[in-house]
Amino acid sequence: MAAIDLARSHVERCLQDVWGAEQVTPDADGDYCYAMGTAACYIGLEASEPMVVKAVACAAVEVKKTAKLLEEINDVNARCRMAHVYWQNGVVLVEQALFAEAVDRGSLSHAGQAVAHIANDIGPMITAVYGGRTPIPAGDVPDSAV
């Protein structure tokens, strides 16, 4: 079995425990998707050396890049301890990478929650000030999901 297959199996088992799911299924890109509030999130693996597991959350889409936006993102990055925020092709993303060999239930749960919380916190502010929209409209978020 290839290293990526072993890592994927381990990540799936961790996600099953963290999410309390009997089975988790990757999407067409091999990512494990979830949502929190207005943020669309996923856990994915990168097979390059060193192999990493990434927790990524989309805070806002269709956002025009401006100097003020990048300054705002820089301010958020200065306050983030583990994750980083960036703009790419109209999308504001929050990401945290973990060495695949070091992933366990706790680290994966923390990374997934951290990026989701940050994206859910900054997405509505970014869209209100700089335009664009959140991946999940605020009106579609049940009160219990926030």
Residue share in helix: 25-40%
**What is the arithmetic mean of pLDDT?**
93
Helix and strand content put the structural class at alpha+beta
> How many distinct helices?
3
Largest beta sheet: what is the strand line-up? 1-2-3-5-4
Reading the helices and strands in chain order gives HEEEHEEH
Strand content: 15-25%
Task: Provide a descriptive summary of the structure in words.
The chain has 146 residues and is of the alpha+beta class. It contains three helices and five strands; from the N terminus they run αβββαββα. The chain has helices at 3-19, 67-79, 105-130, and strands at residues 32-36, 39-46, 52-60, 84-88, 91-99. A five-stranded antiparallel sheet has the order 1-2-3-5-4. β2 and β3 (52-60) form a beta hairpin. α1 packs across α3 (105-130). The longest helix is centred in the last third of the chain and has 26 residues, at 105-130. The mean pLDDT is 93.
What's a quick, concise take on this entry?
The chain is an alpha+beta fold and 146 residues long.
List the helices and strands and how they pair.
Layout: H1 3-19, E1 32-36, E2 39-46, E3 52-60, H2 67-79, E4 84-88, E5 91-99, H3 105-130
Antiparallel strand pairs: 1-2, 2-3, 3-5, 4-5
Features:
globular; 3 helices; alpha+beta; 5-stranded antiparallel β-sheet; about 150 residues; single chain
